[in-house]
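Worked example 4.2. Below are the chains of a multi-component assembly; read each line carefully before continuing.
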Amino acid sequence: MTVLTSVPVRTKRRPDEEHPSGDPRFALIDRTLKRFQYQQDALIEVLHTSQEAFGFLSNDLLVYVAHQLKLPLSWVYGVATFYHFFTLTPQGEHNCIVCMGTACYVKQAAEIVAALQKEYGVAPGETTANGKFSLATARCLGSCGLAPVLVLDGEVLPRETPESAMARVQKRLLGEESEKVSE
Amino acid sequence: MNRADLESMAQREQQRQQAFRCRILCCASTPCLSSGGTAVFDAINTAVTELKLDADVQPVATGCMGPCSRGPMVTVQEQGQPDVVYQQVTPEVARVIVAEHASQQKSFADHVLPSDDPFFAKQQKVVLANSGLIDPEKLEDYVAHGGYLALGYALREMTPESVCKEIIASGLRGRGGAGFPAGLKWDMVRREKADKKFIVANGDEGDPGAYMDRTLMESDPHRVLEGMAIAGFAVGAEQGFLYVRGEYPVAAKRLERAIRTAERRGLLGSRVLDSGFNFRVDVRIGAGAFVCGEETALMASIMGNRGQPTTRPPYPAQKGLWGKPTLINNVETFGNIAPIISGGAAWYSTIGTPKSKGTKIFALAGRVNTTGLIEVPMGITLREIVFDIGGGIPEGMAFKAAQTGGPSGGCIPAEHLDTPVDYESLRALGSIMGSGGLIIMDERSCMVDVAKFFMEFCMDESCGKCVPCRVGTVQMHRVLERITEGSATMADLERLQELCTMVKETSLCGLGQSAPNPVLSTIRYFMDEYTAHITHHHCPAGKCTLDQQPVSEWVTA
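Applying the procedure described above to all two chains together yields the following structure tokens:
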């Protein structure tokens, strides 16, 4: 019979210690981990925080979360890929989400997607090669009274048409370039 | 805090509000904010400060007032006068409104929405009674409107058993869509013997075209919390989880703030209202998976797993979260609890039809003049909803179909417009009540295309655990795609119907079992459109491309 003589050595860093990479954003993840007392049930909350801090879930990040929660990496990967909210690839500087809920669909939201897709050569869920623009569709943003709805960099824009949507995106992308020129 | 403190808090707040001559309520829910509500509220605030009316006029940011397509909405409550509702308010109009009400002139007629407008007249607000009238971020405002009195009453005057009996007597049925009697579910959980039980409020509103739950959580968060606390007392649970959809960050933030305020005042947490009852609520934020609206998948998600459903039985009422008895109800169901306890089951059961009691919130959207959030008594006809409340179809088009229940429901054609809206009648028509999305379509919508849209949704959202749903939805989508492209034959249509029956009868959870509903209901009522696509290569709505041919025609050619 084996007798446990000493407390197992903790391999985990102390939460106040800095991450080896020196990236301060890991402190945000650590804070969430601490808030949930490193419970494995809190995986989705931890992934939410990680994505907020880093913009997307890189492989390193998944390894880090898996290690901290003492979960197999496959488990963390399985959860991260199951939910639409988590993205494993970096996002463009500007993103445009077109709502494809029923109310928006009935009011021709598909044409907006088609127009943007044709102009920028990206399918929904993709980012342009220069990393400037991401196009995405959403299942329903719950603003059905204002259909069709567009979310451009977090700003909700009601009652759009393919033309107005194109104009807005173009302006946003050009706006950034003209700022750079003036600098 | 005890019941006496609660009443004095309500009185203090009522007196404080009555001290103002006029209150200007400005809708601050997502639809109004995205049509410029923030600027309107700022304009009202600056106008009030500029005109030095701080002591007379109180601007309040409230929850949803209903007619979202007419936003931003502003309501003016003046002492001794009926409320005036303004629509499509701009910052300029807002300044005029403040100035005119300050000088007690007549209201600014251009933007007034008449109070006898059928949009309001045909509605009956029970769950949304406070929505649009109170500041959702202020506990005092909710208490001044009678909030938490029902919880106080239940804790002092009732036993868990009598609360369950009251809910059974009220005839309340689950508002998530299936319509299981809520009281029976509560009683089942109450009878279970376990050291721990849980309450879960399902706010994972995934149906495209539905936003009732979000509005309720954003406009009146304390009502949901009060309903959950009463449920906790009735079934003997001390921990509740509120699962909020990831797309609703505002709702999650407001609920978290509401929980903190209520805990600080002793209305949640330990020793609720100085009784022996403890109840904590935690918010869990979803990560975007439609299937998580299914109760077993939702529980898996709360426990940090992939949101995949499991077989039932055992039902959550027996073995739910962490293997303990768990009560899961929709947030709208919890929104009904406080009125039932304070008004009594006898009063509540006078609303609605013999089998479906109470009211139902619908999100009216699509091709209809006034879109927005409505609460109507059960048993109202679709015609009243579409043509009286919604104001009919715009641009002189004809009504074609009403879609209820989202991707699990069906389309109801014009000949059934006079059907009363209740659980049984809708099921008899091949649709379901669903969580309350109601989308109106006119002649420009192709029904085959609509069926394809919903099938694509179910195909994407299928969790992949059981084969009928994972493979069946893909195959059904392919057939529908062929029909809209023009390469289908009548044999495809037969195969589609066979597939529908197979998926419906053999899928593991509600998602798969109901996925064929949009196809079956459109085949039932709009068979002519399917045959027009297949045999005549013609789309009556002019929506489908139909640029391909069946393979058999290629061969013979």
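Take a moment to check your reading of the output against the notes. Chain A touches chain B at residues 40-45, 47-48, 78-79, 82-86, 100-103, 105-107, 138-147, 149, 156-158 (CB under 8 Å). The domain at 94-182 of chain A is CATH 3.40.30.10 (Glutaredoxin).
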